[in-house]
Amino acid sequence: VALLFSIYAFLSFFSAPFLGLISDRYGRRPVLIISILSSAIGWIVFAGAKNIWLLFLGRSIDGIAAGNISTAQSSLSDISKNSTERSTNMGLIGAMFGIGLIIGPLIGGLLSVYGNTAPFWFVGILSLINTILAYFFLPETHKERTNTKIKINPVSPIIDGFKNIEMRKIFLIFFSFGLAITIQQTIFGLYTARAFGFNSKTIGMVMGFIGFIILINQLFLLKNVWLKIWNNKILTKVMFFILA
To answer: Distances in Å between the alpha carbon of 3 and those of 24, 47, 52, 90, 221?
Structure first.
């Protein structure tokens, strides 16, 4: 199970920075459409897998074009008028994740009653519908294109980013956040099933509750409480303390 998580992350490590540069040059819209379509194909392959190698192939297809989250963030940043609006828009992305974390695990748990592959078929079809919606309704937000040289090496953008002292702190915080969340997501279901005898439906309910807390924080607390009490710099330190 951990390796299935890792193969996606490993490939997205190479693809996400590359797709980010592609979106700077050619626009957010085509990158988002291709990335979402890749997710649809990957999950359909995963759902129809008859052996473990096809499971890895499905996750690999998704990881090869895993640039939708960062590109969506860039798209919202494009239309933000100031830093406060940018923080609010980033919070909206978190809120959408929160809604997904509420509804998604519950749907997955309920669909698992009809078979272990049912949730994955649902995800694949949902991603395919999302691709169609993006093709017809998603506007292009990146009007000023760059001629930045596209680097294949995924390490070089990280090195360039860490040269910026201010961004270095933010990168370290996001790394800590990603590490903590990934560890939790990878073994949460396995641990609760073994330690407490949770079935897929119960695990979905617990994850849905976590998503509800995230939703409240991103939709209400971030804009109306945290950003009014602290500025971005202090809020970043608070986030790091909570993660620790």
So the answer is: 32, 17, 11, 30, 36
Say which range, 53-62, 105-114, 140-149, has the weakest mean pLDDT. Answer: 140-149
Judge contact between 46 and 96, C-beta under 8 A. no
Looking at per-residue pLDDT, the higher value among 75 and 4 belongs to 4
Q: Which one, of 129, 102, 141, lies nearest residue 39 by Cα?
A: 129
Asked if 131 and 29 count as a contact pair (C-beta separation under 8 A), the reply is no
Q: Report how far residue 26's alpha carbon sits from residue 39's, in angstroms, rounded to the nearest whole number.
A: 21
Q: How far is Cα 87 from Cα 110, in angstroms, rounded to an integer?
A: 35
Give 174-224 pLDDT, tens digit per residue: 787 788 888 888 898 899 999 999 988 888 888 878 878 877 877 788 778
pLDDT digits (tens, 9 = 90+) for 43-77: 999 999 999 999 999 999 999 888 777 788 788 88
CA atoms of 200 and 168, how far apart (whole Å) = 39
Could you tell me how many residues make up the chain? 244
DSSP string, 159-228: HHHHTSHHHHHHHHHHHHHHHHHHHHHHHHHHHHHHHH---HHHHHHHHHHHHHHHHHIIIIIIIIIIHH
Closest CA to 6 of 63, 89, 75, 61: 63
Measured in whole angstroms, how far is the alpha carbon of residue 98 from the centre of its chain?
11
